[in-house]
Amino acid sequence: MKRGSDKIIECPKCGALAKHFTQISGNTFGAILWTDGKFEACMLRRLPLITKCYTCHGYYWLSQAKEIGIVPFWGSQREENQRPEAWKNAPHIKTPTEDEYWEALETNVATDENQRLNLRVAAWQAANDVHRNEQCKKGGEVDTRTCFSVKAKENLEKLYESLTSEDAENRLVKAEAARELGRFDDAIKLLANDVSEHKAAYISELARGCVSIVRIVPRLE
Tens digits of per-residue pLDDT, 61-80? Predict the structure, then answer.
């Protein structure tokens, strides 16, 4: 990964500044794809969809934040001295926690159904992170039922109900949500016509085995 400049952005709600990284190049060597759609690649970092303002504590979409300036990663000391003090003090954005995604869903930050679905997926993936960590430590062999909290299960059920099954991508997400909720027959039925696709076939296989935990999608040989 080749790091780029930092972008200085402005909170749309209160105008407070923050900054986030950019990258000039990256690669997917050693990347991991999970059944819930999370993609992890240490050499190809991704920014979160939303972040929480450090000042007003409101949530906003990074895509809607106004860009105020650029701070080169390899700048000179002279350039650093000439930058506004507010830029120097601007904190780096943080990826929301599972609780913060739920909090954001209770606000008006999502203004349409697509944004709500995206936040529900992000909250679901955050809820699965504890199981991700365990599987990475133990070589992907964990086979314990996912123990969702009440909020996490409610979020996943709402995501399942909101998704249509008209296109392959939505069916795949809906089927994985069904599998992790223990609705194995529903997951199998949803993917009945998609098993020629590698990830769909793997999710269907897990459902037939009554496995509900998030898993690493095996690489194609």
Answer: 999 999 999 887 766 555 66
- Residue 144 confidence (pLDDT) above 70: no
CA angle 157-163-165, nearest 5°? 125
Question: Percent of the chain scored above 90 by pLDDT?
Answer: 66
- The encoded tokens of residue 183 equal 């609705």
Contact by Cβ (8 Å): 12, 66: yes
Nearest 5°: phi and psi at 166?
-80, -30
Three-state DSSP state, 39: strand
Among the listed residues 11, 9, 22, the one whose alpha carbon sits nearest the alpha carbon of residue 56: 11
Encoding tokens for residue 23?
């990258």
CA dist., res. 210 & res. 183, Å (int): 9
Q: Are 107 and 100 in contact (CB under 8 A)?
A: no
CA distance 156 to 101: 13
DSSP 3: E
- Per-residue pLDDT, averaged over 139-165, amounts to 79
Distance CA 148, CA 170 (A): 22
